[in-house]
Design brief:
The protein has 270 residues and is an alpha/beta fold. The chain is 37% helix and 26% strand. It folds into two domains: 34 residues, no CATH class; 211 residues, Rossmann fold (3-Layer(aba) Sandwich), CATH 3.40.50. The structure holds S-adenosylmethionine.
């Protein structure tokens, strides 16, 4: 019998709550879809507060520094910042302990002005101390990626590693990231992908596992250009458990078109 696993968009359960799709199988005329309620924002912040003490051990165990450096080079983000020079403005959304920003700073000549936001106050404290060790003095703020305290078109690069998969509707976060990105600026995302390790993350953290076609579709729906992606290798145990996506905000216009509702609700095959 033909069984096909599909990639699906966020949905709303009968009680009116947004849910995260875990899996969706179709066989013949049957469709079995399993989705899960996301963690509430306060619960997520509490869990990351609790994880903050050991988060930098986790980043070391999975070789995130090296993995992020590779993605930052492959995406062209590092080269784009070299062009802007020392006054470049970078935003790290869901900065955690600062691993992505530290990796970025280690591969470019001029230290950018780094801004970071996170829901978890303890993660922000950890980011401050880890980044200080590498000579960075970031502007850190406790904020939600869905409503960031920055003006439109403020940053040359806006990035988020392993954050948007926590949200019931990652497109809303992407839209907010694009809002604060300068025309011509670059966006970088790392997200958990479908894999054996991805399933473990999904079970533990109630996250999406995002397929490449789904990620690309979301970036297209934000009307971004120069979209690319590559798998991120997180070591022998986790394997290619994440994907790095990148894209550029078109230079000519500062207008961010609304995501059209019909496009947003359409499922995309992996
Ligand atoms: C898996 S950790 C990744 C941390 C860091 N980016 C890294 O790669 O090491 C996810 C981080 O995103 C933060 N986070 C989750 N949801 C968020 C939201 N809605 N707004 C801002 N930060 C969020 C968490 O508090 C946590 O620090």
């Amino acid at each position: 019998m033909f069984i096909r696993r599909r990639s699906v968009d966020a949905s709303i359960d009968p009680s009116g709550q947004h849910t995260i799709p875990m899996t969706d199988y179709r066989f013949g005329s049957w469709q079995v879809a399993i989705s899960r309620r996301p963690r509430a924002k306060e619960d997520l912040a509490r869990r990351y507060d609790a994880a903050s003490r050991k988060w930098h051990h986790i980043t070391r165990r999975y070789g995130l520094a090296a993995a992020y450096r590779k993605s930052l080079i492959a995406s062209g983000v590092a080269a784009a910042l070299e062009e802007v020079g020392p006054q470049s403005e970078v935003l790290d959304c869901g900065i955690g302990s600062g691993a992505l920003s530290i990796a970025l700073n280690s591969i470019i000549a001029d230290t950018p002005n780094i801004h970071g936001i996170d829901l978890s106050s303890k993660m922000l404290a950890r980011a401050a101390s880890e980044m200080q060790l590498t000579g960075l003095m970031p502007d850190l703020r406790q904020a939600d990626i869905l409503s960031m305290p920055f003006a439109d078109a403020s940053f040359d690069v806006v990035m988020a590693a392993h954050v948007i998969e926590h949200l019931p509707d990652p497109q809303l976060a992407l839209k907010e990231m694009v809002r604060v990105l300068k025309p011509g600026g670059m966006l970088l995302l790392c997200t958990v992908r479908r894999s054996a390790f991805g399933v473990l993350i999904q079970m533990r953290w109630q996250t999406w596992a995002i397929s490449e076609s789904q990620g690309i579709a979301w970036l297209r729906e934000c009307h971004l250009d120069d979209i690319g992606f590559q798998p991120v290798n997180l070591g022998a145990f986790a394997g290619q458990a994440s994907t790095a996506f990148w894209a550029r905000r078109p230079g000519e216009s500062t207008h961010i078109p609304e995501i059209d509702a019909a496009t947003k609700t359409r499922g995309i095959d992996p």
